[in-house]
Amino acid sequence: MENLNSFNRRDFVRLAGMAGAAALVAPGLPFAEAKKRKFEIGSTFILWGYGADALEPALSDISSLGYHAFETFGQVMEQYEKKPGGFAEVVQKYKVPIVSAFCTHDVLDPAKTAADAEKLRRWCKILKANGGKVIEYCAGGSRRGYDYKNYKKNLVDSMNTYGKVAQEEGLVCALHPHTGTPIETEEEIYFIMENVDTRYMKFGPDVGQIQKGGGDPVKICKDFMDLIEHVHLKDFAGGDNGYLGYSPLGEGKVQLATILDMLEKRRKKMTGMIMFELDYDNRVKPPYTPLEAAKISRDFLAKLDYKFEPKTT
Known about the structure:
Elements: H1 2-25, E1 41-44, H2 55-65, E2 70-73, H3 74-81, H4 86-93, E3 98-106, H5 113-129, E4 134-140, H6 152-168, E5 172-175, H7 186-195, E6 201-203, H8 207-212, H9 217-223, E7 231-233, E8 235-236, E9 246-247, H10 256-266, E10 274-276, H11 290-303
Helix pairs in contact: 2-11, 3-4, 3-5, 5-6, 9-10
């Protein structure tokens, strides 16, 4: 009886091993099936810095890690456009397409709207000419003494104007909530997204910024899913860590996997892309180099079945 039991245990282990091998060669089996991901992952450039001098180091790393596209600032594009070869030269050099530009203009002072709209139009033209698709729009203005209820008309009117400009130039404009700006809190996000003209202004949530601002990024993404055209995928851990409290993906508290699964299941397509992002704080030395932090984040996403295509330049 003892020998029989011993045999059965060995036999079970052998059969289990065979089942595991079958999973490798027959990925159609339910327990071995990888998630099918329709969206690609790009990266913004701010982990490497905020000025034009940070763009090429960022693109070199972004390209080598296989991120599918990049995002920079409107003013950075304009600075490169004034150089010999223009902005197109740097885009082509690193073999990473640009998908979006982060742009911010005042939404509190109506006297600034016309000039800011013309500036945005210049940036839209550069982005469009280089193959970009989305203006990731951040509401500008001070929060000192700020109560959005006192600025409702200015907020809505200015954002409608900026969204129309982007649409006229053949682009999509998506609102990016951001800490320290007029659209930071969950209440402010719901107000603007429920009152702005969504024919012109779509939604481009930064899930880490929403978490840091005290909101629930899962709930907000779920409630405005039909308007999402671009995403900043950012994690938030808190603390003074060299990243303004943010962290490489997977090292913070944002429910990233839940948000990604929602996007994959509920959005058939987006004009823009899901963009890894991690803020850079030049006051505190971070624990990783930009390349290391971007690789940690890429590897986190690879474990969730996202694919990357490293390039050589």
